[in-house]
Design goal:
The structure is a single chain. This protein is mostly helical and 243 residues long. Helix content is 56%, strand content 9%. The protein has 10 helices and 3 strands, in the order E-H-H-H-H-H-H-H-E-E-H-H-H. Strands 1-2-3 form a 3-stranded antiparallel beta sheet. Helix 1 packs antiparallel against helix 5, helix 5 packs across helix 6 and helix 7 packs parallel to helix 9.
Length: 243
């Protein structure tokens, strides 16, 4: 189940969201294995919990958010940011969203470091910051409609379901994965995802309260405060030839 779009339009161009996506893609291209000597920048920008715990390598707290470990890693993150980031930027403003994003990433990194401060494994990825975006989206638009692509072997279909179901399932998977995955088999910073997601509503709370808090929910019923986007779905007929 993979979110591909929501029905929640923005009233302004999400310049910061677009810039973050562009920077991540550019950095990935510059630090991928085919980049030659520039690949070393990946290691220099990664976050090392053991170093940060000793007060060193602090730049990694920020630079790790713009590095990724593979093509699917960055594509997945950028799609999630594209789906959910523009609406938070619309509510927070460009500068406010940029600050929210960075603070969410820091909170996510802090959760991972607190759990294993002596880890020497480099940590990279925008997942923690994007998890905060998802948590903030859940607070502001819990009943927004989200289209998800479901793929099962050769079956694939788009379903429209409420944001609280999509995001709640995602968060549940992160918690389950953190609990069930042995530390020795780690490779995904699930605690960073969890920490970012929990930080998201806390960081978005001032915006929610300015909108009226519970009264905002009562007024909008948890949906976007504007008409939804409706997408036209077409089906392609399959012509079977007779033998």
């Amino acid at each position: 189940m993979f979110p591909i779009r929501d029905h929640n339009p923005s009233s302004r161009i999400p310049w910061v969201t677009r810039a973050i996506i562009a920077i991540n893609l550019l950095v990935y291209l510059l630090t991928a294995p085919w980049a030659g000597n520039l690949e070393q920048l990946w290691y220099e920008g990664a976050l090392y919990p053991v170093a940060v715990s000793q007060g060193a390598w602090l730049h990694g707290l920020f630079t790790h958010m713009f590095l990724h470990a593979g093509l699917m890693h960055i594509l997945g993150n950028m799609v999630f940011l594209w789906v959910f980031g523009d609406n938070l930027e619309d509510q927070m403003g460009h500068l406010g969203f940029a600050l929210f994003y960075l603070l969410g990433g820091l909170a996510a990194a802090g959760a991972q470091i607190a759990a294993d401060p002596q880890s020497e494994v480099p940590m990279v990825g925008a997942s923690g910051a994007i998890a905060a975006v998802m948590g903030g989206y859940l607070l502001l638009f819990p009943r927004a409609r989200v289209d998800v692509l479901v793929i099962f072997i050769i079956f694939f279909r788009i379903f429209t379901i409420p944001a609280f179901v999509v995001l709640g399932l995602w968060f549940g998977i992160q918690v389950f994965s953190e609990i069930s995955t042995p530390a020795a088999e780690g490779g995904v910073a699930y605690l960073a995802h969890i920490g970012g997601f929990v930080a998201g509503p806390a960081l978005a709370a001032p915006v929610w309260l300015r909108r009226g808090g519970p009264a905002f929910w009562a007024r909008t019923h948890g949906r976007p405060p504007h008409p939804d986007i409706e997408y036209i779905r077409t089906t392609i007929p399959v012509v079977r030839r007779r033998r």
